[in-house]
Design goal:
Length: 490
């Protein structure tokens, strides 16, 4: 990657420290909400174990990403690492390594981007149930669409003024989101509402068998959990915006990881411990609501819903920022049209923000948060599989041997990266596709493949655009040289 591309006009501003990066990423624990009732449907109380193992998988993967964030401090997180590492010297008309890196970044973008739609749908559903007068006037779809429009517009205005201001909002929303999550994770244990027999008596489904059908389900469950429990890698997205990336990126990553581990395990334990597996399955969309009612009563439940809806704005903010940085990174690398790399004077990639908002307003029309999540998880899992293989390449390729690595993963970590890269692709991808076919049908899979496949013509156009710009630049340089030579002669 040339310094010119990194330090040109449309560059990001170094304006935040690790605490601000962590605050933006602290929306990640909320990603458990769509799956609190989904995982027990297939693995009963063993969902608690799945969450714990998945967050530990996040530590394995994010240790590799922390090394990459400090080795390549001028690129934006996972999509930036993959594009930089897979890129090779241009050979022929099209660069296959550049295409692979761009596709990895596009998959990552599609993994994060639909979070805006997913949580807008959840907000619409909560509003529909919380305020009966709204339910009489509007459908859940209409409420979701209006909620999405209001939230996206508000966040666009806030983020127009730069990431530092977005991080300030992140501090406020982080407190709002973590308070109800921590209370709902801890209070049921403190008040004695958790029955351990609800967990130990239903550890695995009674009909579970270790055959191909159930093994594919298990891979799919890990893929869905991976979408939530490993997403704190987004703290590495802000490498070009950290004041001291060699220290800020690892600190932000691992601080988020520790918080996620305790909240993911405790929240699922709390929900199953209070309601039992059957009670969770009776409330698959919002099992935290009956937990709040059991512990705090009706008034407490209403307060919890309001706080959770406010918290959902934080995870939408996290996804909004992360996916816009992915598009900015791809544009700067020549893997998306240049317009997506444009920033305003505050360093905000505003064109990317507008496109993301419009795309998610369209996704809301799917109407089912699980369907959107099922499509998104395919892109997210592909992105991490290919990104971890890119990390392995960076450890073996002599082209990267001399790079300074301020933070180094333990010796032999490339084999850890290889294991989880292959675990994600193909095993978890196949599992998610299989799980989608059982629960939701084939629509999410076709949507995922359509969006991912659309990248090929977009990338080809980007290469045409780059070649055209290069020809213009070469013509301009030639004209300047001719003018200079003419002046010398005269």
């Amino acid at each position: 990657m040339s310094e010119k591309r990194l330090n040109g006009d449309d560059h990001l501003k170094r304006s935040i420290d690790w605490k601000q990066g962590m605050a933006i990423a602290l929306g990640v624990p909320l990603l458990i909400l769509p799956s609190l009732g989904y995982l027990p449907l297939y693995v009963s109380a063993a969902a608690i174990l799945i969450w714990g193992l998945s967050v530990l998988q996040g530590f394995m993967q994010n240790t590799a990403y922390a090394e990459m964030a400090t080795t390549l401090p001028k690129v934006s997180g996972v999509p930036g690492f993959a594009q930089h590492i897979y890129a090779e010297d241009h050979q022929g008309r099209y660069n296959k390594g550049k295409l692979l890196g761009g596709f990895t970044a596009w998959s990552y973008w599609f993994g994060w981007n639909p979070i805006l739609a997913i949580f807008s749908i959840l907000v619409g559903g909560y509003l529909h149930g919380l305020f009966p007068v709204l339910g009489e006037t509007f459908t859940e779809y209409q409420l979701s669409l209006m909620a999405g429009g209001v939230i996206f517009t508000g966040l666009f205005v806030v983020n127009w003024f730069g990431l530092k201001e977005g991080a300030i909002l992140g501090y406020i929303l982080a407190a709002i989101s973590l308070i109800p999550l921590v209370i709902l994770a801890v209070a049921p244990f403190a008040t004695g509402h958790v029955e351990l027999s609800n967990i130990t008596g239903s550890w695995w489904p009674t009909d579970w068998a270790w055959d191909l059908h159930h093994i594919l389900i298990l891979f799919g469950v890990f893929g869905i959990a991976h979408w939530s429990a490993c997403a704190w890698e987004t703290a590495a997205m802000y490498g070009p915006e950290y004041k001291n990336p060699s220290k800020d990126a690892p600190k932000a990553l691992f601080a988020c990881g520790i918080i996620c581990f305790f909240l993911f395990v405790l929240l699922q334990s709390s929900v199953i411990g209070v309601l039992g597996v059957d009670g969770v399955l009776a409330e698959p969309v919002s099992p935290l609501i009956p937990v709040a009612e059991a512990v705090f009563g009706q008034a407490g439940s209403m307060i919890t819903i309001i706080l959770l809806m406010a918290a959902m704005v934080l995870i939408i903010q996290t996804a909004f920022l992360g996916s816009s940085r992915a598009m900015h990174s791809m544009s700067r690398e020549g893997n998306l049209p240049k317009i997506f790399g444009h920033t305003n004077r505050h360093g905000t990639p505003f064109v990317a923000l507008l496109v993301i908002a419009a795309f998610n307003l369209a996704l809301i029309s799917m109407g089912n948060a699980s369907a959107v999540l099922g499509a998104s998880a395919i892109g997210y899992t592909i992105a991490h599989g290919l990104s971890l293989l890119a990390y392995v390449k960076s450890k073996k390729d002599p082209a990267f041997a001399d790079l300074e690595r301020p933070f180094k993963a333990p010796k032999g970590w490339k084999y850890v990266g290889l294991f989880f890269g292959l675990f994600n692709v193909p095993l978890c991808v196949v599992g998610v596709v299989y799980l989608n076919s059982l629960e939701i049908g084939w629509a999410p899979t076709w949507v995922a493949f359509a969006v991912l496949g659309a990248y090929i013509p977009i990338w080809l156009y980007s290469q045409h655009e780059s070649r055209r710009a290069n020809r213009k630049a070469a013509t301009a340089r030639a004209s300047d040289r001719d003018a200079t030579d003419l002046e010398k002669v005269s």
